[in-house]
Amino acid sequence: MKNLSSRTAGFTDSVIRRMTRISNQYGAVNLSQGFPDFEPPKEILDRLADVTKEDFHQYSITWGAQNFREALAEKQSRLMGFDINPDTEIVVTCGSTEAMMAAMMTVANPGDKVIVFSPFYENYGADTILSGAEPIYVPLYPPEFNFNADELEAAFRQNPKALILCNPSNPCGKVFTYDELKIIADLAEKYDTYVITDEVYEHIVYKPSEHIYFASLPGMRQRTISCSSLSKTYSVTGWRLGYVIAPAEITETVKKVHDFLTVGAAAPLQEAAVTGLKFGDDYYRQLADKYTHKRGLFLKGLDDLKISHTVPQGAYYVLLDISEFGYESDLEFCEKLASDVGIGAVPGSSFFKEDVNHLIRLHFAKKDETLNEALNRLEHFRAKMKLK
Ligand code: GLN
């Protein structure tokens, strides 16, 4: 048999999603792949039940149902601070995973370079490989995960086609400040580079940090492809509803890529989700409050156990330092954690370009009782290992 495509030879399956399968195998508390174990808002579910009896069972318009795009344009215009045209500037996709892939396919030619901050969400590596592009990694330095502006400019000097910006950031929880975004914006302008954003945690931000949409910076709208999704905002990760917002000239091409990749996102789910898109600002405040509570609970638990960890400004992930447990490989540690302790985690190495083996990622998008159970299990594990 001939070889399969060389394009796919370079990457493995997703470690995040593999850890979910491993967690399920051991019946572990799954804090690996980031998704909630609590219900989406009741109003959305009620609408879904009604939608099944209405006429939403065939394809919607390929770039998204009219109703959905109009509701999304209204919400995002309000938040992003500029008018978004629902017909020419939005493409509804199957999750932001497809949004990012379609954005990459839209801007990158084989051989083009793309700047990616490290640590990064693992899909970006695969996105660049599948679109034939080559990543230039720029480190974010702990504990604040700041970048060095000179290093960033050195990456821009290599003539990249685009920069990928995950803000709020997975896995490190960084929320970029206005000044940091302005540095990126000035460089994007100077070196004529597109910016592809992943803003799926736009509503999960902890005070005093605030989310600033990159496209809202002066002059950036025309070069920004904003990607996001409904997954985290309405606790519907399985619905696979994401979107791209970009100027009409770019959106035209994103529409074509999306058309041939997936045709369209699920019509009944788009219709039901309109209910969520029409929620008032209170909903988003309550969501942030809920996650602020969960962050407090989980981080306090880790502090009580004297496990050192990052403090996220946004998103719902924590990186834990596992050095004291004495494992050489973070992957081996995570396998042990799933099989013997009953906690699903993601090895930190899958997020870093640098050689990092002492971190694991846990998420806290879970019911309080689930988080408490995980903390109990960690406590037993530490006690068993006789760590102080
Ligand atoms: N963003 C989620 C995480 O990092 C996973 C999303 C996905 O698996 N599509 O865990």
Note down, in words, how this protein is organized.
The chain is α/β, with parallel strands linked by helices and 388 residues long. The protein has 13 helices and 12 strands. A 7-stranded mixed beta sheet has the order 2-8-7-6-5-3-4, with helices on both faces. The chain has a 3-stranded antiparallel beta sheet with strand order 9-12-11. Strands 1-10 form a two-stranded parallel ribbon. Helix 8 (178-190) links the parallel strand 5 (162-166) and strand 6. Residues 16-17, 33-34, 97, 121, 170 line the site of glutamine.
Radius of gyration: 21 Å
Query: Tell me, what's the shape?
Result: globular
Main sheet specs: 7 strands, mixed
Ligands bound to this protein structure = glutamine
Mean pLDDT: 96
Note the quaternary state here: single chain
* Unreliable stretches covering 5 or more consecutive residues: none
Number of helices: 13
Please sum up the structure shown.
The protein has 388 residues and is of the alpha/beta class. Helix content is 41%, strand content 14%. The structure holds glutamine (GLN).
Looking at this protein, list some descriptive labels.
388 residues; binds glutamine; 12 strands; 13 helices; alpha/beta; single chain; 14% strand; 3-stranded antiparallel beta sheet; 41% helix
What is the secondary structure topology, with strand pairs?
Elements: H1 6-9, H2 15-26, E1 29-30, H3 42-51, H4 66-80, E2 90-94, H5 95-107, E3 113-118, H6 123-130, E4 134-139, H7 149-156, E5 162-166, H8 178-190, E6 194-198, E7 224-229, E8 241-245, H9 248-261, H10 267-277, H11 281-304, E9 317-321, H12 330-341, E10 343-344, E11 346-347, E12 359-363, H13 368-384
Helix pairs in contact: 2-12, 3-10, 4-10, 5-6, 5-9, 7-8, 11-13
The structure holds glutamine.
